[in-house]
Specification:
alpha+beta; Jelly Rolls; six-stranded antiparallel β-sheet
């Protein structure tokens, strides 16, 4: 499997795998304009897992924040525009499934009724265990010795988990409340090392801390601080393969100490950062209703 390709239209393909059932791409986008790009579309439906950085995707008047806490759905033939509210690159694991495979995996309530197969929603929130599965696939994808059947199995398990009942359910939030939550997500992603306070976030949003926390939980189905923690730990999953100094990594992600980072990582993924680096894959603990794991 190739491990690097030259940038095309601002994209670099790091690693790929293609089988009749599923195609997998690990891709890095090198950023672009703050305002939405010209409209694009894809010729096949893709299930996309951002794991680094953030961008905004616009489909007609609907907006979705693409960060490591979400899976996005790119429908075949559906126009979309992308904007980068924060400087820097972003990266995603993109899966294109055979139509029959997707039909079998996806709940019917999520699929549209059009002649071209696609999803009715732009994105869904994923939990920490799903993020660990993304890291596991990326780890195996770049190795020439990896059995394709293994990666296929991991990819189908990843999609099944993302579309199943463990992901968040649609909320009853208003359009304005969803946009407020989106602005909070962009702010949090702009500096993962910062130890935010509700007062600081509220001041930036023009909302009281109480209203902010209530709206965010209504939209995302989890507390704001846990959403932020999950973003930081997802970034750790991405960096562990190349960062040998765990204490430095912990500091860069805003943890007060090596032990604080290790405890949070172990609580969520069921293993230590060092152990995960050696054997990236799937944690064994079950997520609670907020997407975290019991200690």
């Amino acid at each position: 499997m190739p491990t690097s390709r030259a940038p095309t239209n601002g994209l670099t393909v790091i690693a790929t795998m293609d089988t009749p059932s599923v195609s997998v791409r690990d891709m890095v986008c090198h950023g672009g304009c703050v305002h939405a790009s010209p409209e694009e579309c894809t010729d096949a439906t893709h299930v996309v897992f951002p794991y680094r950085g953030i961008y905004l995707r616009h489909v007609a008047r609907d907006q979705a924040v693409a960060d490591a806490n979400h899976v996005l759905f790119f429908n075949a033939g559906e126009g979309y525009r992308v904007a980068h509210p924060i400087r820097g690159s972003d990266a995603s694991l993109s899966l294109r499934l055979d139509a029959a495979v997707l039909e079998e995996l996806a709940p019917q309530a999520l699929l549209n009724k059009r002649s071209v197969q696609g999803f009715r929603v732009q994105h869904r929130r994923i939990d920490s265990m799903t993020q660990a599965r993304v890291a596991g696939i990326r780890h195996h994808l770049g190795k020439d010795s990896t059995d394709r059947l293994h990666i296929e199995s991991l990819a189908l398990e990843l999609v099944s988990r993302s579309l199943g009942p463990r992901t968040s359910q649609p909320s009853d939030a208003t359009h304005g409340q969803r946009r407020l939550a989106d602005r909070v997500k962009v702010l949090l992603a702009s500096d993962l090392s910062r130890r935010w306070t509700l007062a600081e976030i509220g001041a930036g949003m023009g909302a009281s801390p109480v209203y902010l926390t209530q709206v965010f939980r209504r939209v995302e189905g989890m507390p704001l601080y846990r959403y932020h923690l999950q973003l930081r730990l997802a970034r750790a999953l991405d960096l562990l393969a190349t960062r040998r100094d765990v204490s430095s990594l912990a500091a860069d992600l805003g943890f007060s100490s090596h032990s604080h980072f290790t405890a949070a990582f172990r609580q969520v993924y069921g293993t230590s950062p060092t152990t995960f680096r050696c054997t990236p894959g799937t944690p064994t603990r079950l997520a609670n209703k907020d997407g975290l794991y019991a200690a």
